[in-house]
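Worked example 2:
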Amino acid sequence: MAISRKVLKKLQEIAGRDNFSTEREELACYAYDATAQHFLPDAVIFPKNSMEVSAILSLASEKNFFVIPRGAGSGMTGGSIPVKGGVVLVMTRMNKILEIDCDNLIAYVEPGVITGHFHEAVEKKGLFYPPDPASSDFSTLGGNLAECAGGPRAVKYGVTRDYVLGLEAVLPTGEIIKTGVQTAKGVVGYDLTRLLIGSEGTLGVITQITLRLIPLPQSVKTMTAVFKSMEAAAETVSEIIRQAIIPRTIEFMDNASINCAESYLGIGLPREAGAMLLLEVDGEEHTVETDIEKLKVLCLSQGASDVTIALSEVERENLWKARKSISPALYRLAPDKINEDIVVPKNKIPHMVRKIENLSNKTGLSLASFGHAGDGNIHVNIMLDKNQPDHVRKAEAALEALFDYTLELGGTISGEHGVGITKAAFITKEIGKVELGLMKSIKTVFDPKGILNPGKIFESLVKS
């Protein structure tokens, strides 16, 4: 779909000269995300409010050009990449926290608010927004909603969709809709809010969000437990769940992840460890002290060689820096990676750990794994050199086997990264023909002309 100069001029008029560009240097900044794949858009535009978004989408519907919503571009599956060209709709100017209602434990925000900034703002008022993706220092709330982001605290508190009460969104036709409620309960009509969350920008463009908050926990304690093997750590996670102890996070790092993070930060992580668990509990102070001691005893009884409780905020922050640094640090193992976020039932984690080790041994490739053991969400990174055909062939075979075994265990091929373009070729492994047909029908109802974020979810990977 070529965009005429006349249409480009109209887009510039909608957002203003300073908030629209067709310059190649500017376009290149919005041609990629964390997948490192590149597709150049025809233009990029930065709306400031829902009326401008509506005008842009109305024009797109009239003139038949593609629009690709984008937050910070930190996605892992290509969800915000303009695979078919078109106009990238960057939502970062819409970055206001409109209100934090302490009486009703609600916040009203625009989609361009940085997640970490929102955490800080509500915590200053003694409130808490639990969803905390690893990218929270730079990802946006709108992007979090588009992918239904999770994060380490999901084991206790749930994921993004559990904290969204209502939305304002613009349909591909330009119509502005309001979904959901401002109350704790509401069951009038279909739940369009839940439908839009996790739809990866294919059904509508979110322009305002009503979020549910909870009181800020009084106390937090963080602990690490070191194990000789990844399997021993996985068995410990299963035992924690069996004992009905619910930490707010149970993160794990395998040996490759530990060593990469230590080389990256140099904070004294145990390089010789087979695996390390990062556990955190929160709540009232006396409860936290009791729970952290229970976890310490349990980990030692499961064979942990060392258990350390962070004694200061600096120690705690260093541990989280290590956890959040793993993804970029893994490039020390190989120049490229395939980053997956499978989820299996919690009691199946030991089985999956054995499978990952088997695939690494079979292919000769490094398969580094880390992630949210508390809810079974494992980030498996297949490290390779894409310039070596043998690496690519082995990596593709490992990925196929990984997904097949995940589904065999009763899991899902994506817990929080979405489908985008990188998982589109595998969606029929998990979703049945009838169910997939319903999803495509919903897409058609919302977007009859197919202008919004094309090439995502239902279509196989588009090669650049």
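The longest strand covers residues 219-227. Residues 167 and 179 are 5 Å apart (CA to CA).
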